[in-house]
């Protein structure tokens, strides 16, 4: 199994410096390696539209701001650091789970949109998608905190990729629950923390709510909710749900991450496992064990 972090720095620089009329075609070419990521979607998926919906960098404005941001990421060695982190994390994970099956993984690092108020505000300039086996996309803006956390961000998404890979946990859209999503975020953070410590390993949007008992109780009350259209509010919070046209449920940004961290920490403490060892642990076992021991 090989993990490849593609050289999107060169591709994005070329796109942003190209004549405006050529940029969409160049962007589509850069995104082409992701086409298999949408294999479960009905019909054809326009990769450029998906890029825009996911707060990817614009091709019709903010060129200088985006080029400067790319140079900041390049100067920080973001691409090289992610490659090393992913290779190291894979070694840790395979040692903890002998016989782990996984396809090769393609990783795209994409600059975010500085004009997207939700991405730059509530989302703190970073999003990731690692749940489809074989593909990881990380969209970010080089705020100092995000540059510092590039390794942890990458291995968080790797954990998702391997949990839902061959022989792992099935994500069945018809039966999957909020609980599975919450647990998966907690496991991914726990894995990042196993490698990089609590300071860097926790997803930033969840940190403010780690000790909020009202948030904990509210999310726990929704762990059995099904229907993936509901997940955004329960896991990411109301602001993100409203951004994507979903109904709010009364939760702050990152609520599900905070609760996932608490549930997984309680489970790991009770069982004596590491996050890597718990990669494929069932959500029902994690939740039941955690709720007996949490706090």
TrEMBL record:
<feature type="domain" description="DUF2268">
    <location>
        <begin position="100"/>
        <end position="287"/>
    </location>
</feature>
<protein>
    <recommendedName>
        <fullName>DUF2268 domain-containing protein</fullName>
    </recommendedName>
</protein>
<dbReference type="InterPro" id="IPR018728">
    <property type="entry name" value="DUF2268"/>
</dbReference>
<dbReference type="Pfam" id="PF10026">
    <property type="entry name" value="DUF2268"/>
</dbReference>
